[in-house]
Structures are given as C-alpha cells and as structure tokens.
TrEMBL record:
This is 2-oxoisovalerate dehydrogenase subunit alpha. It is found in: Mitochondrion matrix. InterPro entries: Alpha-ketoacid_DH_E1_comp (IPR050771), DH_E1 (IPR001017), THDP-binding (IPR029061). It catalyses: N(6)-[(R)-lipoyl]-L-lysyl-[protein] + 3-methyl-2-oxobutanoate + H(+) = N(6)-[(R)-S(8)-2-methylpropanoyldihydrolipoyl]-L-lysyl-[protein] + CO2. The lineage of its organism: Eukaryota, Fungi, Dikarya, Ascomycota, Pezizomycotina. GO terms for molecular function: branched-chain 2-oxo acid dehydrogenase activity; metal ion binding. One of its GO terms (cellular component) is mitochondrial matrix.
Amino acid sequence: MSFRYAARRLRARKPWSSPACVNGPQTSKVTPAWQTSRAVASTPSAEKVLFPGALNSKFTNTLEFLRPSTQEAISTYRVLDQYGQVLDKETGVDTEDEEALSLYRNMVCLSIMDLLMFEAQRQGRLSFYMVSAGEEGIAIGSASVLSPADVLFCQYRESGVYLQRGFTLDQFMNQLFSNAKDAGLGRNMPVHYGSSELNIHTISSTLATQIPHAAGAAYALKLQNQQQPDVPPRIAVCYFGEGAASEGDFHAALNIAATRQVPAIFICRNNGYAISTPTSDQYRGDGIASRGAGYGMDTLRVDGNDIFAVRRATAEARRLALEDGGKPVLIEMMAYRVGHHSTSDDSFAYRQKVEVEDWKRRDNPITRLRKWLESRELWDETKEKALRSELRKEVLVAFDKAEKQKKPAIRHAFEGVWEEVTEEQKAHVRELRDILERYPKEYDVDQYEDGLESLVKLSEGK
C-alpha cells in the first residue's frame, strides 16, 4: 500500500468507525467554555455583536470613530498635595509615623548614595553609575508594601527597591566596584544588582527583557499558588521606564500576562525622558496607562512624587493581582527624572537647565514627605542635618572598604559557564596563563584575588 493511498484511507475514515474500534473507548470531546461562549451567533434581536473578537460590543447605527484626542486624560491618583497636605482627611495615609520616618530615611540615604557615587564616577573611581533623583518614592514606596516572597524584576533605576528590601550599603559598593565580595563576581557592569536572597532577579542592560521574564515567572507563580494552597501566595512585580514600553517585549509581555491571567504588577516609571527622547516624541496616546486598558488589564495612574499614594496603589494592586486565581495589573507612576540618564549622558544637551531646577524646587518625593513629617512635628532642620551627616558617613565607610578590596579571582572569567570547565576552556586558561607569565610588567595580576595562582590551579584541574 502506497503512503498516499494510506493517507487518503485515514482521512476518509470516520472516528471509531472501524470494526476493531466498535467496542473501544467512546471518548466525547469536551469544548472549553471560552470556545462555547465565543461560538454564540447573534440573533436578529440581539443588542450585542457577539463576534469572537469583541463579545461585549453593542450594535449602533451611528457612524462615529473613537477619537482619543477628544477624551479626557486618565486621572492621576494622589494622597498628598505638593505641600504635604492630606487631601482626604478621613482616609489618611495608611502609614504609621515610625514607618514614615523609616521610609524618609531610606529615600535620603538613596539620594546621598547617588550624589556621592556620581561624583566618584566623575573622579574616575567608578566606571559607570545611574542616579534615581526624582524617583525615590516610586521604588521605596512600592517595595515597602510588597511581600518579601514576591519575585521582583527591576530595570536600572530601582536601587531604592533593593535598599528597602534590605540590600546593604556594603553590597551596593561591592557590586559597583566589582570586587572579590561582589555576588556577581565582577561579571556585570555597575548598577546591575541582583539578590536571590531578596528574590530580586539580576538587572540586565538589555532594555525591556525583564518584562516578558516577569510575565513568565508570574505564570509559574500562578501554578505554584494553585498547587500549594498552604503557602502564602506570591506575585511577580516588574519595573520599567516609559522608554522600555516602546519595545516589542513590553507589548508581548502584557498580552501574555493578560490572556494567561497571571498574578503580576507591572510598574512603569514615566519620568518624561527615554534617555534624550521626551515623551512627546515617544507616543501620541495618553501615556502608558492607556495601553493597560487596551490589553484588558486593571490599570491606574499614580503621582510618583507621593509615596503614600504609591504605597496604597501598590498594596491594592497586589490584592487585585491575587484575586480569582490571579490577574495582571498595570500602574503608571508619574515622575520627573531630575538627574542625567546616566554618567554617560549630559541631559542639558536636550533640555533646559531651568526646567530641571524648577522641578527640584517645586516638587519631588523627598521634599513632599518631609513637608508632611514637619506638619506633624516629627521632623525639623536639626534632625535633617544630623540624618544627612550620619548617612553620608555610612556611605563613605562602605565605599572606602569596597574600594580597597581586591578584584575577583581571574579564574571566575572561565567558571560558571558550564557545570565543569571544559577541555576547550582549559586550553584558553593555559593560553592566558602563558601570556600573563611572559609579560608580567604589562599585566598587574596582584590586584586580583589569589593572583596568577587561581589560573594555575584551574589549568591543573584543582
């Protein structure tokens, strides 16, 4: 029997129609509920279309295009005004005084570390740095209401998330200097932190790749939450800037998260600039929040300069993300990037200095929280000076210790790729060792932990 003849016989045969299958298993096909609902045809008297692609669309005989430019912009949620006054006295701020003081301390610590590290880079002591000026409230406020077990995916301006979760100044400095105590063993450029202990994935330079990673992780967490009902449920939280929302990864990730209904919060820091590109050149629509609605996700826009609004919004988003087995939530946190994009950028080449100074003077998360603290007589200028002096010393002590540490052992350049060092890698090790031994004056190996000895041991399989 030829292959083509057999294929035609199989196509022509009805299911379970052959004599051998008469008494076989009579399995009926179960149609998923979502297929059944989308297969309903509209009737002459139906008020809704019931097309598979738009189930809830009503019929109309009015020809009218949806024109976003005629609609009101999505509102921005806030708890405090720019003078630090509570807008809704009955609701309040959901934050105890001592907790507010702790949040303020962390924000000030972050700003001091940013200032000192920026200057250190300008002095040639660090190769690269990125500040979080103007966005401290978003990172620290959101992280403060998440569960320590929640899995976080950050971009490169979330140092405050790490600080709030317990990342120490020593850990920050060790990573920035890529020294022997760096958890990443010097394999990443500065500001690319990571911590498995704190459930924060390592930051990647590649823009927006963390967004689909978060969607996938959230799907895994959804399955874990279902299979382990005795364990407190967890969610995935992803941070990114509005510039990253222009990448294809953003759209793919949100669509996957929405269709799979995963427990995730996507936090967009809309600070007005994607490096040198202002938002006016990035998109025509109503910010990033409008995109969340387009993907069928619960969405909110928040004043990122108001740490209390950030906290309340994130806490509610976490509750929603775990509702009915899980669903994604998008929060657009509005801010203004006071600093340069990074130490490789001069923002005054594309924006006026007076614009930046105006934002510094008019409103920022640290100033607004301080005004609230002062209104409750919890803070004053004396305490401010004492705190800044104390934190500056702590940062400089950690900086000094990290700068004096040796670099990671050279062997780490080869280890960690495969479970064991391959023969090809060993040949590369021997080649590098030979070069270093022949030209000792050109290569200072003493600055690395164990010096040349680490390569000697690795090449000999020790």
